[in-house]
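Posting this for the archive.
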Amino acid sequence: MANSINYSEYFNDLNMGLLTIDGRKYKFAMNDLKEIRSIFNGRNPVKEYRHKTIQKNVAIKSINLPLYLENEEQDIKKIRREVEVHQNLKNPKYVVQLYGFSIIKNKLRICIELMDESLYDFYKKVHKKFDTFPEDFIGVIGVCILNALIYCKIVNI
């Protein structure tokens, strides 16, 4: 029989419940955030929020946490990895910045830097304007992706 999980005890060592935005620390509380729009509707939805105190928009990814785990140690390790990967990326140039995370109502909420635009939306705009997607753009995007992957490799991700 699987055991009911108290996730907080497995994440407290990772600065759970704090947001660090522009060098300042804030408590991660959903009532400090106003939902703006949905960015991605999938298994782990991402929404844009406005932080009411600092008037900054952020993205929050929500991951449903199961109430029971079959293999507790292995399953907790997978869930922690989602946070640890972001935490190991200190001031990355080609990867969105992690602001913090919290567990609220059986959901792991990961607060990250809001991108100006998704690659898909950028592609649609460029394709509409030029009726194609210029090779130069593909090259620049490819270089940025490779730089992000190289950075991840350097920090052992």
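Helices lie at 8-11, 72-87, 119-130, 135-154. The chain is about 35% helix and 30% strand.
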